[in-house]
Amino acid sequence: MRELEAHELIEPVKEALLEINFDTPPEVMAKLKEFWQTEVSEAGRGAMEDIVRNRELAAQKRVAMCQDTGMAVIFVELGQEVHIIGDLKEALNEAVRRAYTEGYLRASVVDDPLFDRKNTRDNTPAIIHFDLVAGDKVRLIVAAKGAGSENMSTVKMLAPAAGLEGVKRAVVQFVEEAGPNPCPPIVVGVGIGGDLELAALLAKKALMRKMGERNPDPRYAKLEEELLEAINRTGVGPQGLGGVNTAMDVRVEYYPTHIAELPLGINIDCHLHRHKELVI
Q: Domain for residue 235, yes or no?
């Protein structure tokens, strides 16, 4: 049994949140530069140039890439051979608190969603998902999800008869209707199966993969490629200004489901695509 003090996670998670708001991973920057060079729409090409320049300036000046610095979402895979000493959830929220106050990131969380809507002033609480796994490590994926793209996300309860083509139509149509709102070029997470809430979670988890990392099941990997091609044929283009580069990637996760349903979650991520993996 390995013992781990909860407070040991505070600084690594804080630094990860700062990094994903300031720095662009090389594989994401490479994709953005590729889109800048290959975009056929003049307006879309200009938008891509602005996006790339903005990323470079954010890294140089250590400032946020976007005024919406997101709501913190943390996926925790806790090894069952790890004994956490202290309050793990509070430690993760303390990391968020320090990142957003010390890093001068915008606080965007309200304590009540419907009535008071009073800002918590430190971007807490985070949304934290826990999963118990084998081993003696703690794996975390730290993400900052902005509202523009999160608002352009949904769950649809399809009939099983909708099948593969029904899923394709639903995803492409939803992205096309979203248009410029999620700040394309986007990454699209798709969750298929489970039930209503699991389909949404699968779609969010799909966004946490690395750029170009395909589902290990060749059928779903093929679906990812087909959806990416179809979405880029919609003509939405960078920032909705038209063109051939609407999505950087599409990722699909699936889970067994009831015989009478076909849940479909769609979670869109903006071009910022802010997440980082830690193993402690």
A: yes
What digits encode the pLDDT tens for the residues 70-129? 999 999 999 999 999 999 999 999 999 999 999 999 999 999 999 999 999 999 999 999
- Cα gap 42→25, rounded to integer Å: 26
Q: In what order do the strands lie in the sheet with 138-145?
A: 127-133, 71-79, 138-145, 275-279
Q: Which tokens sit at 77?
A: 């895979």
Q: 201 CB contacts (<8 Å, ≥6 apart)?
A: 129, 191, 194, 265
d(CA 17, CA 96): 7
Contacts of 41 (CB under 8 A, 6+ apart): 237, 238, 241, 242, 243, 244
- The Cα–Cα gap between 146 and 270 comes to 8
**Pairing label, strands 138-145, 71-79:** antiparallel
Give yes or no: residues 219 and 161 share one domain.
Answer: yes
Domain boundary among 145, 172, 199: 145
Number of structural domains (the chain) is 2
pTM of the model: 0.96
